[in-house]
Specification:
Length: about 475
């Protein structure tokens, strides 16, 4: 029967189309007027439905009879395809588990389409797309702080109501290692947890670009675009990567419009705000700004400590508090670096079977951050001095003229002058708004006392050791 069908089809389509779209089809069975054909991929099926359905209908009715029906069976090629073409949709036919993991409804399956399309397509009820989400980057593992509050809560709102908030697209921007990728995944994970039927895809702009370029090479741009049009939620990380790539931007523009118009959620991240994205088309930039742009900034000390704590407890580890604090004080550039230092610290300790104490931590961390031109921070000096004299740190930054506070403040200034390249004015500003003369006076006072007072000298030596970088 299929041979006869093919003969008719051959006369009705170009040779090229016939070879591409009909030769690969394998007839599987004909039972009760239902013809089952096997097609190599989901796109293949979609393509047939879109371009050749009328022809197929006619031919099959002619060969089998008026009540003829067509059924597709799609080869499952999860493993072979996931590497080559990450945008391939897989249809898990036997795999119940992955079916329930991330099933999505095909548009074909809606009531409307059923009426329009007399063909039944069992087995096509669900397709699953690998969302590419990293489960460790969840909201639970994300520490909220002033630095990321807006971005986080907007992300949370989107996760609870994808496509249903004013934040579409949601653009999260900010410097390197400040949690953009983490948040992007968290949104995807949140949506998947609450709406398992939604098709969610996380993709880096780089990966998107690579897929697009491949699709041009392989003549499968239609597949590429159609795949992205299937998404309920599309998360694109680091869109600044699109800069200067016009063709990719065009494809993304088209996909963006389609998704946005159909109420699908779009989440974007970027290392800079839209106004600073050079090399990205204006029409795309203006769309980036349609929803909400929220920035993430470098976290303050408390947030840094909280992040380290979360990471440590999450891994079932424990660290002395002073080590943790030293880490958080020393590395304030970005979170990735701080985590890197923590990881190598733990690795060192495990390898050498040493327990992690502050000495080991200092050695490690200082080695770790040597290249990033680390400078001791005023916060850290304050902290060490206050701990030593048992004073609350707020007092040091206040205007109190209590003797012991004044002295501690002077000592902190003295060490700041000694251990950093900061100007007197800058040190004063960091010590409760004192002027440069006050700082100069402090340094002289401490020097004088050190020469005359042996006990005081001892304090300074202790403190210097505690503050020492090596
Ligand atoms: P970005 O994408 O902005 O460069 P990432 O999202 O990759 O940064 O974050 C770098 C690392 O820091 C990741 O391991 C991430 O889990 C961690 N991180 C960043 N922000 C937070 C946060 N607020 N809470 C917990 N971990 C965080
Ligand atoms: Mg990132």
């Amino acid at each position: 029967v299929w041979r006869n069908c093919l003969d008719i089809i051959k006369d009705n389509v170009s040779l090229q189309s016939f070879k591409t779209w009909f030769e690969p089809i394998v007839p599987i069975r004909l039972k009760d007027s239902v013809l089952t054909i096997q097609v190599p991929s989901h796109f293949f099926y979609e393509w047939l439905e879109e371009h050749y359905i009328d022809l197929l209908k006619k031919v099959i009715k002619k060969e089998i009879g008026a009540e003829a029906k067509l059924e597709y069976s799609i080869i499952m090629d999860r493993n072979s395809n996931s590497k080559k073409a990450p945008y391939t949709v897989n249809l898990p036919t036997n795999d119940k588990k992955s079916l329930s993991n991330s099933p999505v409804s095909m548009p074909l399956n809606t009531e409307e389409n059923h009426i329009k399309n007399p063909f039944i397509i069992p087995g096509l009820k669900k397709v699953s797309v690998d969302s590419n989400l990293n489960p460790t980057y969840s909201f639970d593992n994300f520490v909220e702080g002033d630095c990321n509050r807006l971005a986080r809560s907007a992300g949370f709102a989107v996760a609870n109501k994808p496509g249903g908030t004013a934040f579409n697209p949601l653009l999260i921007y900010g410097g390197v290692g400040l949690g953009k990728t983490h948040l992007a995944h968290a949104i995807g994970i949140g949506i998947k947890n609450q709406f398992p039927n939604k098709t969610v895809l996380y993709v880096s702009a780089e990966m998107f670009t690579r897929q697009f370029v491949d699709s041009i090479k392989n003549n499968t741009t239609n597949d590429f675009v159609n795949f992205y049009k299937l998404m309920d939620v599309l998360i694109v990380d680091d869109v600044q990567f699109f800069a200067g790539k016009e063709k990719t931007q065009d494809a993304f523009f088209y996909i963006f419009n389609h998704l946005h118009q159909t109420g699908k959620q779009i989440v974007l991240t970027s290392d800079k705000p839209p106004v600073e994205m050079k090399g990205v088309e204006q029409r795309l930039l203006s769309r980036f700004k349609w929803g909400l742009s929220a920035d993430v900034q470098a976290p303050g000390l408390e947030t840094r400590i909280a992040i380290l704590q979360k990471k440590i407890y999450g891994n079932g580890l424990d660290l002395p508090e002073d080590v943790l604090e030293y880490l958080a004080y020393s590395i304030n550039t970005n979170i990735r670096e701080m985590e890197g230092a923590l990881t190598s610290l733990i690795a060192q300790a495990t390898l050498n079977k040493k327990s992690i104490n502050i000495e080991l931590a200092k050695k490690m961390i200082d080695k770790f951050v040597k290249n990033t031109a680390r400078e001791i921070s005023m916060d850290y000096i304050h902290k060490i001095v206050c701990d030593y004299f048992n004073l609350p740190i707020e007092l040091l930054k206040s205007k109190t003229r209590k003797r012991e506070v004044v002295q501690a403040r002077q000592i902190a200034m003295f060490f700041a002058k000694k251990m950093t390249k900061w100007s007197l004015a800058s040190i004063g500003a960091q010590c409760g708004g004192k002027d440069h003369a006050t700082v100069l006076h402090a340094c002289r006072t401490v020097n004088n006392l050190a020469e005359t007072d042996k006990q005081f000298r001892g304090y300074l030596d202790d403190l210097e050791k505690k503050l020492a970088v090596n």
